[in-house]
Structure formats: structure tokens, C-alpha cells
Amino acid sequence: MSEATSSQRKEVDALYAESQEWKINTGEETIHAKRMPGAFRRLKWIAASSWLLFFFGPYLRWNGRQAVLFDIPGRQYHIFEITILPQDVWMLSLVLLFFAIMLAVVTTLFGRVYCGFFCFQTIWVDIFTWLEEKLEGSPAKRKKLDKASWNVDKIVVKLKKHLLWILVSMFTGVSFVAWFTDVYQLWIDYFTLTASSTEWSVLALFTVGTYIMAGVLREQTCFWLCPYARIQAVMLDRESMIPTYDYNRGEPRGRLKKGETVEGNGDCIDCNQCVAVCPTGVDIRHGLDEGCITCALCIDACNSVMDKIDKPHGLIRYESVDALEGKPVLPLMKRPRVLVYLVIMTLSFVGIIYGLLNITGLEIKVLHERQPLFVQLSNGSIQNKYELKILNKTNEQMTVRVTAEGLEGVELVGAEEPFVSPPGKVAPYTVYLRLPRRAMKESSMPVYFKLEGVEKPELNSKYESMFLGPR
Ligand code: SF4
Ligand code: SF4
User: Fold this and answer.
1) Does the predicted TM-score (pTM) go above 0.85?
2) Whose C-alpha lies nearest to ligand 1, atom 7?
3) Which ligand is nearest to the Cα of residue 301, counting in written order?
4) C or N terminus of the chain, fewer CB within 10 Å?
């Protein structure tokens, strides 16, 4: 620091003045974390935006319908481009398995990344504290306000804040209910007091839940209520790369003295900025803490301090305990746990891709009539009866054509004209196959029903059935 400019020195002095404000979270006081720009803060906003885009999806239109709609009575689930029908639910199980294992892999490798960047609770707390900062000012001012005795100004500002929080909570509740019904009709129903009792109950539950969890409890939810904080202990190992303070480089920590180079001190200047920005009030210099949600904001804070004292970044960085202790670290692909997770993830991923490739807008299933299996007509030909179940997964009514293939001389009766298939529904149709007696080479022969959209032949499906006759 001997070559530090006077402006850098002033910045460091300002940090020390501010550091008197910060102390470790014991749950007695509300945490008012400082917001600082940085690479991980940017990443956090990007991650939050994608989650918010999904959560508020009901307000967007996609292909002429609500972008996110879980239409339970209609048994259709729309998520932007994807429409899932009950027949495709097996794929949803694979998607859930894939994400569950991915969560385990990411936690093993990089700690609670989900908590720090994607968790509903973390994102809403971020929104609530952002509003709080706009109304009550910087963390230092908020702490002062919390300690000040009640007067008119304090009551007004606190009332405004809580009112705003309740409005955000209500908006969250309505938006969640809108996942299951038409969003614009829902708002009308709420405003005209004609919403159903279920809609009112879910709205009340979500409003109260969001207000308490994100506004009142905040980081205490991560400390005391979230089971994932406890589960992560068995997922992490000494090779997990998590935000870590490099004590080799930082210790012995010591405050910079004006105009002096402090010989023998480490790089940590004990400015407490890493504690100041921590949304859960953890001091990462004490080692891994179950309150740490791996948001990496302390990395941003410490890097900015290192800039001020002309030291390289990375005093706090993503690092493993073993690497910090100078022990050899196994490459990723040699860790048994990572390999097992990867195998399960690959299998479920292959299943999902298979499902996506085979999902088509049209699907046909064929049931062969059992009573009787066949009849012989007066002209000697053999007739089989079938029930076709045609599923139209698209959002529009379609004209579809059914043909039969694979049997020479077979005649399809009942499907001479194209069928009109309603959107998002399974519709049954009865058809007959007739085959001249002399074409019956065996008592049971395969036959294929082919379904094709008249205007959209690229939407098609095939089903193998049997044609039965006398021995
Ligand atoms: S680790 Fe970095 S941010 Fe934290 S007190 Fe030390 S120098 Fe300051
Ligand atoms: S210690 Fe660092 S990584 Fe952990 S929660 Fe606090 S700021 Fe985020």
C-alpha cells in the first residue's frame, strides 16, 4: 500500500469508517446487506430474470395463448412452446429426475448455487430489500432507523414499505393462481369479487407466505427453515469449489495504517466489506457456514477492495478446502460421486431427447375389437373392427386422414373422408378393415394405421395392429 494514491487511501479509510457498522448475524437484528456491483451480482440478476420470466409467464402470450398455463380441467400443460398432455407425463418425471440430479451435481461441485442464484426465497428477498433501500436508504440509514424511537416520520416510511411489500406479495399470489387459469379473467374475477373460494384461499396463502418469508423472516428462512441447508452438508466434500477465504494469503489480517507499509501482514485489511454485502450476515473468513448460500457477493466485494489497495483479485474466490491446504485435487472425471451422477443425468437426458424427438402434434392408438375377433362377409372376405383414438396435441382443430398399410388388398372402411380432430383432445372413431379370403396367408397378420394432417402432413403418427382371420 506504500505506493497507494491518496484517493485510494481515502477510499480505504471510508471502508474502515463504515466497517464499524457490520457484525456477524446472530438472528437478533435484521440484516441490511450492502449492494455492490460486480460479476456475481450481474449473474444473480440474470438468473433472477429468467426465473421471474417463467413465474410471470401467464402475462405473456405465446402462439396466441397464455405462455404458462396448467389447464387442469382440460388436462393440458402449456409452457411457452411446449404443450404437455397426460400421455407425456412420463417425460416430465425424467425432466424432474434430471433437475434433481443436476442439483446434486452442482451442489457437490460448487455448493448451494441454487440457493444463491435461483431460489424463489433469495430472489424475492432481493426484490423486497431493493424496495426497502429505495424507501429507507442505505444499510447504515436503515440500521439507524430501526434503532430510532417511533415518531411520525418512522411510522410513515415503515407503513409505506409494508404496504408495498403486501402489494408485491398479492401480485405474487395472483400470478401464481394465474398459472392455472386465464390471467385476465382472473384479475376481473378478483376485482368484481367473483373469484372462487379456491382462488381466494391460494391468493391469501401466497400473500401471507411471501410477506412473512421474504419481508419479515428473510435470511432467517435460509438459516432455520430451509432443509436444503442441512442436506448440503452431505453433498459437499473437501473438493467442492465454494466461495472460500484464502487464509494463507489473507492472514494475519490487519488494518492499514496511514502512510505505512505493514510488514508481515496478509492481504486482508479487515475492512469487513465481505460481511457487509452478505445477505445472510456470514463472515466467510471463519470458514464454511451453514448460513452461506453461495451467492458469491463477498467475492465481488473483496475484489473491489483488492482493486483499491492494488492487490490481485481472489483473496475470496471459488476454491476447495483441499486446494487451499495444498493437497492434490482429483480431476472432476475421476471422482466416483460425479461419475455416478453423470451416468444418471445422461440416461435421463437421453430419455428426454428421445421423448422430444418422438413427440408429435398428432397421435393415434388403435384398439382391436375382441367380440367378435373377425367376421366373414357374404362375399367371403374377412372383416375386422377397430376403434381409433386420435389425439390432437395442437391448439387448433385439424383435418386428419387415416390410411392402412402393410397388407396387400386391404380395404379401409369408415375413413374414406378425413376426420375433424378437436384441439387438445382424444376423439374416438370406428373403422373396419376388409381383406379378401384368398389374401389371408396366416390367421394373424400385422397391419399399420397411418395418421396424417391434411394441411400439415409433417404431423403424422403410425400404429401397428393385427388383422385376424380363420386358421
Ligand atoms: S476478506 Fe477482503 S473484504 Fe473481507 S475483510 Fe478482508 S479484505 Fe476486506
Ligand atoms: S458468505 Fe459470501 S457466498 Fe456466502 S452467503 Fe455470504 S456473501 Fe454469499
Assistant:
1) no
2) 268
3) 1
4) C
Does ligand 2 come within 6 angstroms of the Cβ of 280? yes
**Residue pLDDT, tens place only, 272-304:** 999 999 998 889 998 877 788 889 999 999 999
Provide the residue count of the chain.
471
328-334: average pLDDT: 77
293 CA closest ligand 2 atom index: 5
What is the C-alpha separation between 417 and 207, in angstroms, rounded?
Answer: 54
User: Is the model's pLDDT at 112 over the cut of 90?
Assistant: no
Angle between helices 227-235 and 89-110 (to 10 degrees): 70
CATH 2.60.40.10, the chain: domain bounds? 362-468
DSSP 3-state of 433: strand
Cell of 280: 445472510
462 forms beta bridges with 450
φ, ψ of residue 374 to 5 degrees: the values are -160, 165
For 362-468, CATH gives 2.60.40.10
CA 11 vs CA 241, 256, 289, 304, 463: distances in Å: 31, 12, 29, 11, 74
Burial class (CB in 10 A: 0-12, 13-18, 19+), 107: buried
How far is Cα 366 from Cα 463, in angstroms, rounded to an integer? 7
Cell of 233: 452438508
Of 144-158, 185-199, 259-273, 453-467, the one with minimum mean pLDDT is: 259-273
- Bridge partners of 435, per DSSP, are 382
